[in-house]
Amino acid sequence: KQLNKRKRSQKQETDGASLNSSKPKLISKPKSVLKVNRKEADKPGQKQEKAVVVDKKLSRSRSKELAEARKKKRRKHYTLEQELNKLWEKMRQRNIPKVDRSRLISETLNKMKGKISEIAGSHVSSRVLQTCVKHCTQDERDLVFMELRPNFISLARNTYAVHLITKMLDNASKEQLAEFISSLHGHVGALLRHMVGSLVIEHAYNLGNATQKQAMLSELYSPELQLFKDLVTMKESRLQDVITKLQLSKPSVLRHMASILQPIVEKGILDHSIIHRALIEYLSIADQSSAADIIQLLSGESLVRMIHTKDGYRLGVLCVRHGTPKERKKIIKGMKDHVNKIAQDKFGSLVLVCIFSIVDDTRLVSEIIIRELEKNLKELLLDQSGRRPFLQLLHPDCPRYFGPDDLSSLSHFIPSLRKKAFSLAPFSSPFAGPVDTEDAGEDVNGETDDSIADAHPDGGKKDPHLRRKELLVDSGLAEKLVDACCEMGENLLKSKYGKEVLYEVATGGANGILKPSLGEKLQKLHETIASIAALPKPEESAEEHILEQFHSSRTIRKLILDCPEFALVLWDKALRGKCSMWCKGHSSKVITAYLESSDPDVVELAKEELQALIDKGEFSFEPRKK
């Protein structure tokens, strides 16, 4: 024990001596280089510290040189790219004079001449070329097009070059666009399966004319059309017409289309309109099993990405119309947190209209769709597309609010799923997946689901009036609509789109659906509108009175003709004894409506005062011929 103590004490003494010694010590990295006095700088430890810092700087510069050398060795045109990047920094500035930019672009294109197709795939050179193509002359653009032409297909698959290709197409002449689309022949299906290449196909499809679009689509129909051009004309715009003209085998066409569309659907490349069109054509000839499998694959969040196009929303309508209750539930749940955006979309809003018209599970629709619509109610009521779902509930399928094409698309169906009796094609569907036997036969309420064709060939089983009442009145949406109309009365009346919602709410909706439960609130709305109309006419204001404004005067006129209760309130609050003020201009249409009303009480109310104005020559009225 004493020997061990002695050894420990000796070790501590040597350690302490080494710490107190003036011998310089090596350090891994100084925390900071501080200014020191001359005396301190002369110390050997300080010299060593400076040497370490200098060595670090040298090693950094050396590593940069090595990295540059490796890049030069790996990338053939690295030096050229650096030169182009410097020129690009100058030419892309917004405030640069056009003459200077043209000079820089010409210099840049001269440096790249003969090498454009080789460097177009670089993230640096691609941006330089995009700027050049945007601002260069047509002759210079033609030279770039000629150099890129042999490599269009390979460049279309490149992550960076794809932006250059789309920019070239945006600035291409009709002849160049036709030449580019012609060069895609035989590669449309392969490029559509590619995440990057599909962007080029979609861009060319949107820029092409009807004949060019048909040529691109036809490649997806049959191997024969993929190999040979000009077999199909614009007369055969539908797939069924193509099959009839060329006497193609329908099972063969289905197999070929499935081999192209299946990988596309599985990869989730579903944003493009050409794919939506191809799926519509596929469903038009598909047997019941194949069509049902497509609907099963598309039901869910993937459908939300498709309904922004004309054919995409038709697919959405078909999936809602022919889907099982389980698939409809997936579609509605997939719309969660996206309902507001869908409602404001020109085509997406029609899918919501279809859901309101068909889906029987009103509780699910209320919880997801209607609750989200209520959050942005005021904004949607003034929006051209956003008002459509509300108008469908207030006045279903009204030609005033939905055009012939919209109503036709909403009643669109898949032929094979519409038929009750059918025979399966002699091959199994390549889209078929594993069957979920646990709940395949149950709907969302736990009830047994019948076959697709027999259960809902044209929509849901529930009575349409009952479904509408549950969605509009029982959900509480109607009450919030009335409150919003009371709060935004003047804005809605003067709005080109909001006036129609206010009119339907004020009249109680089609068949008076709002009157039994919301009669008092509707009376309050009538009084609110009448109070706004009773305000004095502004003398020197840019804002027009609602009786003189174009949209509001016509809406009030319609309310007088179609809603006698409102006509009585408006007369008592705003017009009695004041008709002489409003017998000219747009407001005269409001006064005339009292004499044109089909309700004798309304006519009798205003007849005496208006007749006096007619006799004085202040107001003219000609009864309409029946």
From TrEMBL:
Residue ranges of domain PUM-HD in the record: 83-439
Region (Disordered) residue spans: 1-75, 434-466
InterPro entries reported for this sequence: ARM-like (IPR011989), ARM-type_fold (IPR016024), CPL_dom (IPR012959), PUM-HD (IPR033133), PUM3 (IPR040059), Pumilio_RNA-bd_rpt (IPR001313)
SUPFAM superfamilies, sorted: ARM repeat
Pumilio repeats: 147-182
Biased amino acid composition, Basic and acidic residues: 37-69, 453-463
Keywords, in A-Z order: Repeat, RNA-binding, Translation regulation
Any one GO cellular component localisation term in the record: nucleolus
Domain of life of the source: Eukaryota
GO process terms (BP): regulation of translation
GO MF terms, alphabetically ordered: mRNA binding
Bias (Low complexity) ranges: 18-35
Database matches in Pfam families: CPL (PF08144), PUF_NOP9 (PF22493)
Acidic residues bias: start-end ranges: 436-452
Protein name (record): PUM-HD domain-containing protein
Species assigned in the record: Genlisea aurea
